[in-house]
Design goal:
With about 350 residues, the protein is mainly alpha-helical. It contains 16 helices and four strands. Strands 1-4 form a two-stranded antiparallel sheet. Strands 2-3 form a two-stranded antiparallel ribbon. Helix 5 runs antiparallel to helix 13, helix 9 crosses helix 13 and helix 11 crosses helix 13.
C-alpha cells in the first residue's frame, strides 16, 4: 500500500468514525454555554412579557383590553415591514437611511395619482413600488459600483426623496385615496386584528426563510461578516449588496402602501420619524432568537417590544418627548448589546 493510499484510508476512517466525547472537564463548560445562549435567546421575549404585566397591573382596564392589543398589532405592521427592509442591507454590511423618505414617496405617489389624477388604485400602487425600486437601484449603483459609503449615499437620497415628496404633494397632506386600498389594509379583520398585521407576519416569514433556508441568505451573512473573505470564497459580493439595497427600498415602498391604506391619506413627513425606531428595532432584534445576527423573528419581537413600551407610556400620560428619549436610548443600548452578542457568537463559533 502506498503512502498516499494509507493517508486516504486514515482520513476516511477519521471522518466516518464514531464521535469522541469531549473531556469531562469540558462538559460543564459546554452545558453552561448552551444554558447562557438559551437565556440570551429568549431574554427579550421574557422582558416583553414582564413589560406587559407591569403595564397591565397599572392600567388593567385600558392596557389589557382586547381593543388595545388589536390596535397595537395592526398599527405596527408598517414599522415591521420597514424594519425588515432595513435588516437586509444591515446583514450585508450596509445602511439604508433613505427608507423613511421612500415610504413617504410611495404614499404620496399613490395619493397624487389616485386621489388627484384619477388613476386606478392598482396602477398607482404599482407606480409607487416602481419608485421604490428606482431609489434602491440608485442607492446600489452609487454605493456598490461607485464605492461611496452607504451612509452618505442613502442619507443624500433620503433628502432628495423628501424634496420630491414636498414637490409633488405641494407640501400638503393629500386624502381621498380609494376605499379599496383601505379595505385591503385595515378594513378586513382576522380574529379581530386588522389584516395589515398578517402582511407584516408574512413578510417576516419570507425574510426568515431567506436567511435560514436558502443559500442566498447564507451568502448575505458571509458578505456582512467579511466581504473580502466572502469574495475569495466565490460569493458575488457586488450582486449581494446591490440586491439587498434594492430590496430594502422596495419593502420601504410596500410600507408606504400600507401607510396610505391605513390612513387613506399621505403625509409628506410620515416616513422620516419611523427610521429611528426601525433602526432601534433592527439592532435590538440581534439580541433575541438568533443572538449575534440580524434575524426576522428577533426583529418582529423587538418592534412589538418597543411599541408596547411606547403605548404603555402614552396611556400613563407621559409627555410625548419621552418617546424620542425612549427610542434614542434603546438604539444606543441595542447597538451595544448587539456588539456584545456578536462577539460572543464569534467566540463560540471559534471554540
Amino acid at each position: 500500500m502506498s503512502i498516499e493510499t494509507a493517508e486516504a484510508v486514515a482520513a476516511e476512517v477519521t471522518v466516518s468514525g464514531p464521535e469522541v466525547d469531549p473531556p469531562p472537564a469540558a462538559k460543564p463548560r459546554e452545558t453552561a454555554r448552551r444554558r447562557g445562549n438559551s437565556l440570551q435567546k429568549w431574554a427579550l421575549v421574557a422582558i416583553w412579557i414582564v413589560l406587559i404585566a407591569v403595564f397591565g397591573a397599572l392600567m388593567p382596564q385600558s392596557f389589557l383590553s382586547a381593543q388595545n392589543f388589536q390596535s397595537l398589532l395592526g398599527s405596527q405592521a408598517i414599522l415591521v415591514i420597514l424594519t425588515l427592509g432595513l435588516v437586509l442591507p444591515l446583514t450585508t454590511g450596509d445602511y439604508d437611511l433613505s427608507a423613511g423618505a421612500v415610504l413617504s414617496l410611495s404614499a404620496m405617489t399613490i395619493a397624487v395619482l389616485n386621489a388627484q389624477q384619477g388613476w386606478p388604485i392598482w396602477l398607482a400602487v404599482l407606480a409607487a413600488l416602481l419608485f421604490g425600486v428606482v431609489v434602491g437601484t440608485i442607492n446600489a449603483v452609487v454605493t456598490v459600483l461607485v464605492g461611496i459609503d452607504s451612509l452618505i449615499v442613502t442619507l443624500g437620497m433620503g433628502s432628495i426623496g423628501t424634496g420630491v415628496v414636498l414637490w409633488i404633494g405641494n407640501s400638503q397632506t393629500i386624502s381621498g385615496v380609494a376605499d379599496a386600498l383601505v379595505e385591503a389594509v385595515v378594513g378586513t379583520r382576522l380574529f379581530g386584528v386588522p389584516i395589515a398585521f398578517y402582511y407584516g407576519l408574512l413578510c417576516c416569514i419570507v425574510v426568515w426563510y431567506l436567511f435560514e433556508h436558502t443559500s442566498l441568505g447564507r451568502r448575505m451573512l458571509f458578505t456582512g461578516r467579511g466581504p473580502r473573505v466572502a469574495r475569495l470564497s466565490g460569493v458575488n459580493v457586488t450582486r449581494i449588496r446591490f440586491g439587498s439595497l434594492v430590496a430594502s427600498s422596495f419593502l420601504a415602498a410596500v410600507a408606504g402602501v400600507l401607510y396610505v391604506g391605513t390612513s387613506s391619506a399621505a403625509n409628506p413627513g410620515a416616513g422620516e420619524p419611523m427610521v429611528l425606531p426601525a433602526m432601534a428595532a433592527a439592532f435590538l432584534g440581534t439580541t433575541a432568537i438568533r443572538p449575534g445576527r440580524f434575524n426576522a423573528w428577533g426583529t418582529i419581537v423587538a418592534v412589538y417590544f418597543l411599541s408596547t413600551g411606547i403605548t404603555g407610556l402614552a396611556l400613563l400620560g407621559i409627555p410625548s418627548f419621552v418617546q424620542n428619549l425612549f427610542y434614542g436610548g434603546t438604539l444606543v443600548l441595542a447597538v451595544v448589546l448587539a456588539k456584545l452578542a456578536r462577539r460572543r457568537y464569534v467566540r463560540d463559533d471559534a471554540s
